[in-house]
């Protein structure tokens, strides 16, 4: 079963500052159809609480940090996104919850599909039915 994974991307820099590049099919393994970012998250908020049917995503904390709880019914993990060079690839079957957002966190999300509310599995029991073994 597919499970999320972390990718470390190269930091390009010179005496002017830093620059990091993400390219579809090179840095990340899918076509990027949608981009959104999560920021200004209130203290103590936990968000996400879903998996998807089709959508694959790449999460990058381009400023500040946050943590992500992952569960694909076989494995669970907690990962920290605290650098613009760390990319978390989320597979559709990864139930995910984002938490511990720093006040300056800007969580950039690159998505393989356009927004479709029908692609979300927000009920945990339904998630287990769809992806459980
Ligand atoms: C995910 C995690 C990492 C739209 O209208 N279009 C969009 O493209 C998105 C992403 C959201 N929305 C609406 C749907 C809700 O009314 O924006 C509102 C907040 O979305 P949601 O509650 O789904 O946000 P999160 O943080 O729980 O989840 C988001 C993504 O929706 C989701 O795909 O994997 O970030």
Weakly predicted, low-confidence segments: none
As a whole number of angstroms, the C-alpha radius of gyration is 15 Å
Q: In which range does the helix fraction lie?
A: under 10%
Number of strands: 12
Structure characterization notes:
With 133 residues, the protein is mainly beta. The protein is 6% helix and 46% strand. It is built from one helix and twelve strands, in the order ββββββββββββα. The chain has a five-stranded antiparallel β-sheet with strand order 1-9-6-11-4, with no helix packed on it. A hairpin with a 2-residue loop joins β2 (11-14) and β3 (17-20). 26% of the residues are buried. The model has no long low-confidence stretch (mean pLDDT 96).
